[in-house]
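Open question from group meeting: does this chain pack into something compact, or does most of it stay loose? Before anyone orders reagents, we agreed to write out a predicted structure and look at it together. Recording both the input and the output here so the notebook holds the full record.
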Amino acid sequence: MVGRGSYFTFADEKSLMAQRMGDDSITLGIWVKREKEWIEALFKEKGEDTEALKKVLLDEFSEWVEEMRDWIQASTNLRQWVLWELHVGHTWEHKKGYSLLGDAAHLCTPFAGLGVNAAMKDALELSELIIDSFSVNGPTLDQAVAMYETAMFPRTEKVQRHTMKNKESMFRTDAPVSFFA
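Structure tokens returned:
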């Protein structure tokens, strides 16, 4: 079902996301819309007991088709992973000698699949501006970094908005219909 890429399923405020990795293994993300204390309590109670953890997760997905539940049953190395994100449109006042890029600058959940692309664009734009700062008529290094930040904020806000829209529609009770609306 996964093939050579990724497979996404979501409904009932839950999601299974499988991704084929470079070594031909599959990484499975099991997502449920809960307060972070839920997963912390689950791992505190069940510890490293993989079968007990799987039972709880299989119960969570009890109404899903057997093929999807098989992914949970076949899973190993279960770990808790609370998702964090910065507020959409997060910015900061420029400070000489400092800047951020990638997730440090615009952390968002993986529900649009754009995080790595945004980080690479950050690196490309910042590196080009740094190179320009060494030219005779170029900006100073600090000006180059400030220019990067000024361009990065609106560009990555679009990524954050897209990600937030996907996350909210994927984890609604009427998903996946809400995702395509």
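Observations to bring back to the group:
The mean pLDDT is 93.
The radius of gyration is 20 Å.
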